[in-house]
TrEMBL record, chain A:
Region named Disordered: 280-302
Species this chain originates from: Microbispora catharanthi
Key word Transferase present: no
GO cellular component: plasma membrane
Descriptive protein name: Phosphonate ABC transporter, permease protein PhnE
NCBIfam families reported in the protein's UniProt record: PhnE (TIGR01097)
Topology with respect to the bilayer: Multi-pass membrane protein
Amino acid sequence: MVSTTPATHAPAAADPGPLRPPWSARALIAAGLLVAAVAVTWLTFWWIGLSPASLAAGLDDTARLLRRMWPPDLPGAGDVAWMIAETLLIAVAGTGLAALVSVPLAFTAARDHRGPRWLRPAARVVVVLTRAVPTLAFAILFVRIFGLGPLAGALAVAVHSVGMIAKLLTDAVEEADPVPAEAARACGAGEVQVAVSTVLPRVFPALTGIVLYRLDINIRASAVLGVVGAGGIGVALQTALGSLNYHRAAGIICVIVVLVLLLELLSVAVRHRTVRHRRVRHSRAGRSAGDTTGTPALPAGRAPHDVGWDRGRVLRVAGAVATGVVFLVSLWSLNPDPGRLSGAWPNLRAVLTGMWPPAFSGDLLMAVLESLLMALGAAAAGAACGLVLALLTAVNTTPWRPLSAVVRVLLVVVRGIPDLVYALLFVAALGLGPFAGFLALWISSTALAAKFFADSLEQLDPLPHEALTSVGARRWQAFAAGIWPQFVPSFTGNGLFVADLALRESVVLGIAGAGGVGYLMQESIATLRYDTTAAIVIAIAVVVYAIETLARVARRHLL
Amino acid sequence: MIGDPVLRLSEVGKGFHGTTVLDGVSLDVPQGQFVALVGPSGAGKSTLLRLVNGMHLPDSGTVRTLGENPASCSRSRLRALRARVGFVFQQFGLVGRLSALENVLMGSLATLRLPRYGVMSYPRALRIRAVEHLDRVGLADRRFQRCDTLSGGQQQRVAVARTLLQSPELILADEPVASLDPAASVLVLETLKRISAEDGISVVCSLHQIELALATADRVVALRGGRLVLDEPAAGLTAERLREIYDTAGARDG
Ligand SMILES: Nc1ncnc2c1ncn2[C@@H]1O[C@H](COP(=O)(O)OP(=O)(O)O)[C@@H](O)[C@H]1O
Ligand SMILES: [Mg+2]
């Protein structure tokens, strides 16, 4: 009989005590997630009719399409430059607008908000809703309201980004030390004054980081906005595919990939620089901490009321001015003349009034379910494949270093191609339907999961593995006992995160005809059935929010 | 009981990237002896211990561990040899998220074929033995506690229990108490000493505290700058003399 009371120091040989560990919530959750992942994957395969034969046929068709795309046909240099510029300007304008809106929104949504009671939940709803609905979904809507072109694209980027920037900024505001704000209140400052002069300066570095991170994401997103007519380089891709000019489509995809790869290099460089910058600052702070009495507070010759135009200040101000100018140029490039904006007003009213009451239907729910299945099945399959690739690339698990480098480069390229582009290609190769969407999501989930997994594998403590090697364990035994148990939390967390991202993508892949609810969404707007559109947006928001919450809860209990 | 040496180093030299770390080190360790390996940090203690179980291979000279030469072993022979040699690390080498029992069970991996994950994936007989070893280090009642919630001294005793499950003929301990407070250090060293005496297992334990070495070991071996500068029974040694020899050896080096 197995008892659950801990053993005492009784003679161990006579009664070893319990040999079966007590059940823990952690083990149950992990087992539950595993069973759910397997079940969902199986259900997805059944739903889209995936079998070895259909997969082989699909690969065949894809290979044929790739042969038809070869050689890529690049547009002229001027065209390329213009398309890239428009894409970048959409991203900058959208991100900038989002940042401007996010600051007050984040302060309203933060825990210590002191305004009217109803404002905080309202702000939270805006944050959740804008974050849950993907950029492309907003883009379809805004193209209807504002007409074709980059204005709709930039607004879509802006609205979706508001959610993420505001959420991260809310966290930063809530983490900021409350004492300075209390001190300012004690001096009689108003709430807005408190926010602007005590909290904002302290969250400003966080804000900069968040905005840059979001700009990176938005440039990638802007590259495909053109598929729904919202400007940028995607317009050319859509035109080429629509006219079956596959050579040109291949050329445009090459441009997108190069653009994204350059961006990746740039963001790696920026990250390195900021890390180094921080280290330098820290070591300086450490050195000067002891001798504060010896150094004067002001450099010699500076009057106490003079802010002092030293090098750092000049650079900071120049940077701020340049950022502002670029932002204004990007806004101007959207061509937002007053006539056009006022012309959009009736459209906006028609859309908003047409949305009530939302019209749910069985078809709609089936389409949402299809999106959900595509995403979860692709994420599960992608996590499995990504794990294998991560084990090949991570420096502490790779069987062979050169292989690791090759896989790493390949993964960056694969991640560089937006999901929607994969979906367009698979639809062109295999025809309409969720099979194309599943393959697109599978590829992107695999690449994403492989990167996340490899990064976290490399951060694990190497000592248990070394200890087990010295015990005489085989390679796989040392992995299973020394590395895998450490890796489980980040494997689960990152796997759930990949599922979350795949879900956001899968609801828009239907725009390319690759299954799921995206197609219905586009159709409902084209046929002016805004009540259906509203129902779809609500359904998407609910499903995305539910999965995100589930992922958060699971992560918390597993760590 | 003194038979063939468990460990024999003859004129062993080892370097990394052109720097010499060990230089002509010879050492015999008979069965059942507790040897303290002392020396300042960077003296080559870890390198020496790693040569013994084949985690490093010597550049010159030969290492014979339990009658085998790690340098000429095939992969599976080396694995079999390592299974007979316990290794205790300064930083324990435990998987913090797993229970003490599961960490101890990992000591038996070399006797099992397949990868294992979870306490219940190990045979019942091994689980019973693992609990017995946890009992020997005084932690049987902590068997299902996560290792990252144990104190440093308790973690190191779990690591010792893991080593015991290997049924080792030789235990190598690389600064096993360097991250522990004085009381826990004494407890861990006493545990090692008791096991060495009860089971007749040789222990080579690197330490940088001279007093602990004198209090625990049968024999003290001192390394400095990669050279063996002292090798005497602990009984005749005083801390002052050990320090003195240290200093004169240092003066000769410099
Ligand atoms: N894997 C290695 N690669 C390069 N140098 C090493 C390596 N291991 C040890 N060393 C060097 O060998 C010298 C001795 O190290 P070690 O054996 O760890 O000394 P101890 O354990 O006595 O402090 C040190 O100078 C260290 O930098
Ligand atoms: Mg060492």
